[in-house]
Structures are given as structure tokens and as C-alpha cells.
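Researcher: Please predict.
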Amino acid sequence: MDIRQLFSGAQLNQTVQVRGWVRTFRANRFMALNDGSCLANMQCVVDFDQTPEEVLAEINTGAAVEVLGTLVPSQGKGQKFEIQVDSLRILGTSNPDEYPIQPKKHSLEFLREKAHLRVRTSTFAAVMRVRAALSFAVHQYFAEHGFYQVHTPIITGSDAEGAGEMFRVTTLTAKSAADEIDFFGKETNLTVSGQLEAETYAMGLGKVYTFGPTFRAENSNTSRHLAEFWMIEPEVAFNNLDDNMDLAEDFIKSVLAYILEHCQEDLTFLDQRFAEEEAKKPQLERSPMGLMERLRFVTENEFIRISYTEAIDILRNSKPNKKKKFSYPIEGWGADLQSEHERYLVEKHFTSPVILYDYPAEIKAFYMRMNEDGKTVRAMDVLFPGVGEMVGGSQREERLDKLVARMRAMDIDEEELWWYLDLRRFGTAEHAGFGLGFERLVLYATGMTNIRDVIPYPRTPLNAAF
């Protein structure tokens, strides 16, 4: 039985057995044990008179132990139950002079260097439990709504985004012969998106989604970028942009409602941590909401839907702050919006999540459906407080002539994507989908400020440790 089960359903005065890692050991008597199943530690009261000195000497922070004892009401503050230890066995020792995760506050930067051990801290354990719950909620939502999961390739010969920021996969070396053929016989890369392949399956199965690792060789060493990250990408045949916006709103509300219901202890802890971190910032830089408040902000509000053109007009006439203007002034129609612009729309102007749609074609990908005006495409972005864009999606261009013209204008190889064009030759139909970076969702849900702290082992420029 794990500690979470003991707190929720065990009977007092029954004999219990738990295994875990020592967080603290005080006065040769009070041992705080945690097994990762929940935030709370189980206090285990050791009878030091009956415990051999050599065993007591090995009860150090980080040691793995097995405890057999009786569950009784706690005599101290801060916990309902404790275990009166009858027997104790050391499963794995931990040298107190070498173990780096001591019972004190460590900086997040320090803990990134100890990524293999940081999950033993309260903060990272809470983050990873919320991450796991969100992952479950994603699969549950799509299963309940008739979607089929598709495992799209990690190694690909196409660049879905057309940005070229891809990791090449090759067996060739500097010493390879000039006529030596690469393993796949062509240039291949790690995928930046499973969208194009997902489209092919949506046009046969109707409703599909991908949830897998994607890669981007973008040399950005910021708190918002990873070289390896996970993407959620649903794709639905016979859906238009309005259907797509409905799906995105319902999906996001569902998965966030799931963690609000099932991760209350961890979210309460992370909410308190979020408040403490925000209090350290200058007043103008603080979040307008607490963590739990901004989660409910999404689940309890209708998403406002406005066109990109309407948003530009609002921003042009806005006064973001009495003391501060936008760092990036609105230059006019056609400009790509910055995070500060997106946050203004969400937090100040509408005070609700916002979906922007019908973006200028020049700033969007080749596969997005062209509107009749010839200037905008059926694209959408879902904007959240605190972060700006959370979801990007579109109705896909189903007309062969329009898609080919767009690819030629953007210098995209038609021969490389012959199979993608076949979807428009054989039974074409409108379809739509979106992409959501999973780590960005976890970042929002946990209140962490650096994306490196919501994935077990972050991959960033000049860093592939562990």
C-alpha cells in the first residue's frame, strides 16, 4: 500500500507496510518518508531504544527504507496519521555528505543539473504528477469522443512547417565515400510535427490524434523553448474552422477540469508556490491571477472569438498601462502579434480566453485554407492569460489548385509531398486540426516559469545531459 492510499483509506490501528525515501530524520526518532505517490510525507516514529545503532546511523536523507508498523493518530501537528514503527529495514543507503538533495530550498537552476534526482523534491514531484494526470486526461478525452490515436513517424523526409529548423538523421560521416548512399537513400530529419501524416489518416478514419515527441533545431536558449517536446495534434475530416474552434475549447476545458478535480493537493501546493514567486516580482510584472484562479479562468469562461483584423484595431486603440506602452508597437495589419499583445486581449480587454482567426496568409503555413479575400487564411490561435498563444490550428486547404499555388509561392517541393497532394486528388473534403505543445500546457497548469522544469530531461542548445 502506498502513502496516498494510507492517507485516503487505511484503517487506524492496522498493521501497514510502506517503502519510500527518507526526507528528514529528527532526534533519532521522527522519520519523514515519501514514496512519490502524493505530496504529503508519512511520519514514522522509530523506537530508537529498540533499533540497532548501525541501522539508525543509516537513516539519512535520500535513503530508501521499508517500514512495518501500526497506523495511529498523529500526536504532532501537520499530519493526521503516523506509523509507530515495529521494524525497519534499510533498502538503499545514502551518504549524507554526498547526497545533493538536502532538506533545504534549492534553486531551480541547481536542480536542473541534478535532473535525475530532482523529482524527489516536493515541487518537481507535484509537477510530474500533474503532467501525468494531464497526459491521461488527453487520451481519455479523445477516446471518449471517438478519436483514434495515430503513431506518426519520428523520422521524416518532409518539413511540415517549412521553417527548415530540423535535426538531420544520417549515417554518413565526414569520412564517408563521395558515392556512399545514406541509410534512407534521401535526406531525412526528426519531425517537427505529425500533422501532415495525421491528415492522411483523418481522411480515412475520420477523427484521429497524435501525441508524441517532436523536435526543432531552433537555437533559442529561452525559458519557452525546447529542442525536444511533445505535441498533441487532433485532425478531423469534414470539419471547418468553426468546428475546430469548438473542439479546441472543449478539449482544453476538459483536461484542465480533470486536474482541478484529481490533483487538488498538488495544485494547492503549486498555487502557494506560484504566489510566493510572483510576490518577488515588481508589481507591474506580476500575474493578475493566482494559479488556481487562472485555471478556472479557462474552464469557467466562454472563449471570445474575434478576427485578426478586429484584434489589430483593438490593439491600435489600446492603452495597455498608464505607465507603460507596448514594448513592440503595433506596426499595422500583417504584423505577427507578440505575447504582450495577446495577453492584453485576454487579460485586459476581454478578461476571458480569446480565439483569434483569419490571419494574414503571409505569416502562416502553406497548408492553411485561403479565404475568398485572397489575403487571409482560415487559421486560429487560442490565447491564454499569462502566456499568450496556447494552441495554433487551421482549416486545411482541401482544393488541389489552391494548395499547389501556395506551395509554389512558398518554394515547397511538390514532388516531396506528392502523397499529401494525393489527398486532394482522391476524395478531397474539408478538414481541420490544431497543435498544442504539451509542455506549454503543463507550464500553464503548474505555474512554473521555465519550460525546462516541466519535462523530465530537457533538451536545449548545448545540453543533452542524462
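Model: The first strand starts at residue 15 and ends at 26.
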